TrEMBL record:
InterPro entries to which the protein is assigned, alphabetical: Adeno_A1_rcpt, Adenosn_rcpt, GPCR_Rhodpsn, GPCR_Rhodpsn_7TM
UniProt-listed Pfam families: 7tm_1 (PF00001)
SUPFAM superfamilies given in the database record: Family A G protein-coupled receptor-like
Protein name: Adenosine receptor A1
């Protein structure tokens, strides 16, 4: 008979279930909002959808597995290792998606007039595929041998049939988690994103201080919109950092101070923070990004309350919020009308056979005709 769960375990499981439901529902609405609102089909929101898919997988897959692990399930070593690697893959994909979002916003502010030529939907899709490919390579590294199996066999801590109590620290090497995962693939991207967002805010404030206006549009509106969106995405990055750093700090303590005691409630809090990060992003989008808020309201009214609502589309006001074209092209006159479009109110002209006066032609042609007549 399995041992009864302690009150702390029951509380932990209840909170995990609540986080899982919130994460799945919220991030499904993010993907749904991008699908029904054409103005959200942007390269930045392409990366946001990638991040939302990773968060959906955390709620639907990782958290149930984490609950299973928390009750001390006896499993095969490689089955437990695969569960742990799944968490690592999804974590790494989230980090790389946040990095791609930061680079995308940097290019949008740095080269606003040529942004759409540089960042095409095809290149954005390739960037998403690259992020997930790197995430799988980094996260599945323990499956290729960088794990605790040899150490457990040397200490006789595992049965000959490789059955083990499935816990993260039993199967994942702390050398891998600290030196390779944290110091190489978590901390450097976070620091790089910090520098990128600092540069974004600096460039935007620099442009806003110029107070440049034209007769056709005000660049300040464009940079104000970029500033608000950058603040929202920077908040997503900040929440990710404070959610994941405590667990990585505990991993560093485990590696560098193996005899230090870590209270179990701190481990539970660190794990809940990492999982809870998957649930907070839709909340940030809803409160900080108007287009998401509008799409969420439509989903709620039309599909939950069964009300008839107008379809979301690229409204003219939203088109004006798109990046301004090159100023040299804004003032250009409209292209000439084709012959078919030119109104013709004059009476039809008669085309006589040939009655042209040589002197009315171009000078060179007239001179040649006169020479011929004088010969």
């Amino acid at each position: 008979m399995p041992e009864p769960l302690s009150p702390s375990q029951l509380l932990y499981i209840g909170m995990e279930v609540a986080i899982a439901v919130t994460s799945v529902v919220g991030n499904v609405m993010v993907v749904w909002a991008v699908r029904i609102n054409r103005s959200l089909r942007d390269t930045t929101f392409c990366f946001i959808v990638s991040l939302a898919l990773a968060d959906i997988a955390v709620g639907a897959l990782v958290i149930p597995l984490a609950i299973t692990i928390s009750i001390g399930l006896q499993t095969h070593f490689y089955s437990c290792l695969l569960v742990a690697c799944t968490v690592l893959v999804l974590t790494q994909s989230s980090i790389l998606a946040l990095l791609a979002i930061a680079v995308d916003r940097y290019l949008r502010v740095k080269i606003p007039t040529s942004y759409r030529r540089v960042v095409t939907p095809r290149r954005a899709g390739l960037a998403v595929v690259l992020c997930w490919t790197v995430a799988f390579m980094v996260g599945l590294m323990p499956m290729l041998g960088w794990n605790n199996l040899s150490g457990l066999q040397q200490n006789s801590s595992i049965s000959p049939d490789l059955v083990i109590t499935c816990q993260f620290e039993n199967v994942i090497s702390m050398d891998y988690m600290v030196y390779f995962n944290f110091f190489s693939w978590v901390l450097p991207p976070l620091l790089l994103m910090l520098v990128i967002y600092a540069e974004i805010f600096y460039m935007i404030h620099k442009q806003l201080n110029k107070k440049v206006t034209t007769s056709h549009s005000d660049p300040n509106k464009y940079y104000d919109k970029e500033l608000n969106l950058a603040k929202s995405l920077a908040l997503v990055l900040f929440l990710f950092a404070i959610s994941w750093l405590p667990l990585h700090i505990l991993n560093c303590i485990t590696l560098f101070c193996p005899h230090c005691q870590k209270p179990m409630f701190l481990i539970y809090i660190a794990i809940l923070l990492t999982h809870g990060n998957s649930a907070v992003n839709p909340i940030v989008y809803a409160f900080r990004i108007k287009k998401f808020r509008t799409a969420f309201q439509k989903i709620w009214e039309q599909y939950i309350c069964c009300k008839d609502t107008p379809a979301l589309d690229m409204q003219p006001s939203e088109r004006k919020e798109m990046p301004d074209p090159d100023p040299r092209q804004v003032a250009a006159p409209p292209p000439p009308l084709s012959p078919k479009e030119v109104p013709n109110n004059d009476p039809p002209k008669l085309h006589l056979p040939t009655c042209e006066n040589p002197l009315e032609q171009k000078p060179k042609q007239a001179l040649s005709v006169l020479e011929q007549n004088t010969v």
